[in-house]
Amino acid sequence: MKTARSYIDLENLNDDLGFLVLQMSNLWEQNHKKVLKRYHITHTEFCVLASIHWLSEHDNLSTTQIGLAKHIKTDPMNISQTIKGLEKQKLVLRTCHPMDVRANLVLLTSEGKEIIEKAALTIHEAERRFFQILGRNYNYFRDCMIKLIQSNE
After folding, report:
1. Which residue of 89, 124, 126, 145 sits 20 to 30 Å from the alpha carbon of 29, by its own alpha carbon?
2. Are 86 and 112 in contact (CB under 8 A)?
3. Count of C-beta atoms within a 10 Å radius of residue 93
4. In whole angstroms, what is the distance from residue 86 CA to residue 78 CA?
């Protein structure tokens, strides 16, 4: 097998894992966009709301802007912009962190909690359909993704 210098040199782009990850990620996000329209939130807003909900249940002091960025593995500036939009929609609010005067906790409002709980059920079903093709390989695929994430943190 000839070793390619880059994906441009490949005869078949299915040999480039990065390109496949990009395509799958884009399809997965488009799938989310379709089902989230009814809740009037974007894919990114869903991820932030879901993370706030999860962190508030498991580690309340991590629901800072930085804690959310680390949890989602994204840029803190992206989180900041998303939170501002969610504040305008009255889905989240910021409050003083009890242990760090430089930080604010980001909390769900009652409306934000209601929306994320409904949207999460919808997303769960959409993801079940999206990944059903994996069948018995679902757990193996998940474990491989976890290894990739952990080895690149």
Report:
1. 89
2. yes
3. 15
4. 12
- The C-alpha angle with vertex 105 and arms to 50 and 149, in degrees rounded to 5, equals 45
Joined tokens for residue 34: 């379709």
Residue 74, number of CB atoms within 10 A of its CB: 16
Q: Which amino acid is at 57?
A: E
67: its two tokens:
């804690």
Q: Confirm if 62 and 55 have CB atoms less than 8 A apart.
A: yes
Instruction: Round to whole Å and give the CA distance between 97 and 74.
Output: 21
Q: What DSSP string describes 48-109?
A: HHHHHHHHHHH-GGG-BHHHHHHHHTS-HHHHHHHHHHHHHTTSEEEEE-SS-TT-EEEEE-
Q: What is the pTM of this model?
A: 0.85
SS3 track for 117-136: HHHHHHHHHHHHHHHHHHHH
Structure tokens at 69: 């960025």
In whole angstroms, what is the distance from residue 49 CA to residue 86 CA? 9
Q: Give the pLDDT confidence of 4-27 residue by residue, as tens digits.
A: 566 666 677 777 888 889 999 999
pLDDT digits (tens, 9 = 90+) for 65-101: 888 999 999 999 999 999 999 999 999 999 988 888 8
